[in-house]
Design a protein that fits this description.
Length: 87
């Protein structure tokens, strides 16, 4: 019985192994950094305007964190809709 189980497990691994080996030749490699052209001026992010202070960005990130936390806070359990009609 044990030998039959081990043989079955090995047979299940065979298709997985063959799939991995079949995809091995199709793997893409990342080109070296020297082959990647620089961004055009139009695609680059503009410089930060002088009216944008670092404290402004920090306050915005803090506010976003508060909003995110408020969305994940547990809410109080309300009565089921049928409870209001049972009076």
């Amino acid at each position: 019985m044990r030998k039959k189980l081990l043989t079955g497990q090995r047979l299940m691994l065979l298709p997985m192994l063959l799939t991995l080996l079949g995809c091995e030749g199709n793997l893409r490699t990342t080109p070296p950094a020297s082959d990647i052209p620089p961004l055009s001026a139009q695609a680059r992010q503009p410089a930060t305007p002088s009216e944008c202070l670092p404290t402004c960005s920090a306050a915005l990130m803090n506010e976003r964190g508060n909003w995110r936390n408020s969305l994940t806070l547990p809410t109080s359990q309300a009565l089921p809709a049928s409870a209001a009609t049972m009076r």
